[in-house]
């Protein structure tokens, strides 16, 4: 399932569950998840194994504890770091980083369940799926993922989140990620400068992004735009080739639509190769 379809399906299921009161645990097959001498109960949802955030943390660290569930945001402390996930959101935060989960976090029998692989990465654990028995074995290698300060290079989150906010603050999360993808795809392309800052402020063929001309690039980004930037820097990608985007309803030039190959539309933005 591709990234865009997965997010749309997750949104549809979220509405269905809220409207009709579907019991998730009763409608999805259970998956035994073994770590050491413990076995957790997981569930197979949208082709992904989900586990309880608190139970997984406890399996990684006996001293782990649930710190808060305020506003639907469940935060646990384990191995010296905090891990947070929110009901219906499609990401997990830990150690200053943000990991895209593709499908949304959800409540099962009162506990918040999260796709297992981001949690396993956070706690440096291998996930082994057994197709024959439909079960998961976890091999804990100890430790936790590196911190954001160690992974995100200087200015990367700042400038990427600023351009995402300036260009797509009213767009869905996937649209924000796609805008970030355009920036990173340009960074990787020999046709453009090789840093995020230089791509944003590139003037080789005139100003590339309207917020640079208007000064909106300097506005403070929202928390969701900062998260979207981090997810892009973690490698989350809608498309690895798009280099342009435009809002056809307000665009003052039709050069992109006339000269570049159309890729897809998310929200108000059309993306092009």
Characterize the structure shown.
It is a single chain. Helix content is 35%, strand content 27%. With 273 residues, it is an alpha+beta fold. The longest helix is centred in the first third of the chain and has 18 residues, at 3-20. It has helices at 3-20, 24-27, 53-60, 116-122, 148-151, 156-168, 173-188, 196-200, 210-214, 223-233, 255-259; strands spanning 30-35, 38-45, 48-52, 65-68, 73-78, 81-86, 91-94, 97-100, 106-108, 111-115, 125-130, 135-140, 244-246, 262-266, 269-272. β1 and β2 form a beta hairpin. The two termini are 22 Å apart. α6 crosses α7 (173-188) and α7 crosses α10. The protein is built from 11 helices and 15 strands.
CATH superfamily of the largest domain: Copper amine oxidase-like, N-terminal domain
User: Would you state the CATH class of the largest domain?
Assistant: Alpha Beta
CATH fold node name of the largest domain: Copper Amine Oxidase, Chain A, domain 1
**Quaternary:** single chain
| Sheet/helix structural class | alpha+beta
- The helix fraction, in percent, is 25-40%
How many distinct beta strands? 15
Number of domains: 2
How would you spell out the order of helices and strands? Answer: HHEEEHEEEEEEEHEEHHHHHHEHEE
* Strand portion: 25-35%
pLDDT < 50 stretches:
10-23
Mean pLDDT across the residues is: 92
Identify the CATH architecture of the largest domain. Answer: 2-Layer Sandwich
The tally of helices reads 11
Instruction: Based on Cα principal axes, name the global outline.
Output: elongated
Q: What spatial order of strands do you see in the largest sheet?
A: 9-10-3-2-1-12-11
